[in-house]
Design goal:
The chain is of the alpha+beta class and 155 residues long. Helices cover 35% and strands 41% of the residues. The protein has one domain: Nuclear Transport Factor 2, Chain: A (Roll), CATH 3.10.450.50. A six-stranded mixed β-sheet has the order 2-1-6-5-4-3, with helices on one face. Strand 1 and strand 2 form a beta hairpin. The longest helix is centred in the N-terminal third of the chain and has 45 residues.
Length: 155
Amino acid sequence: MKRVFFIVKVWVLLLVPATAVRSQSSPNNAEVEIRVLEGEQVEYLMNGKVAEMRKNWDAAFTVNNPFNVVQDGATGPIQAGTLTYSKFERNIEKVLLHDSVIIIMGSELVVPKTAPKGSSHDTNQPIKRRFTNVWMRKDGKWLMIARHASNICSN
């Protein structure tokens, strides 16, 4: 009987760490997948492929943009073609995984090529900003549901 108990105990000790390793690898896989999607969003933006960007957006994708306007992503200045960039660098500093939601935080360095009329953006001038992107897994696919970007004051 002691031998059976010992075998069960060893089995449990071996099984629990293996399960923990498997559960830890899932967030890593999700993080890799999101980092690829984040890179594609920048690539599509820089190549004017807004329709491709939209394929990774939820139908209710909402943006709090650097012009201090909260709006449906489908009606923003990128969609309208009034905001384009000659440079767009994204530095992901933190990835938080919460079940079916991933939050991306970091910094961006952008140089607008064109900017909406009346905006405070000078074209061809570098702008540093902070951003947060929120992704949600829906029907087996990661979709961006929200984005916030704020310019950092130059002082």
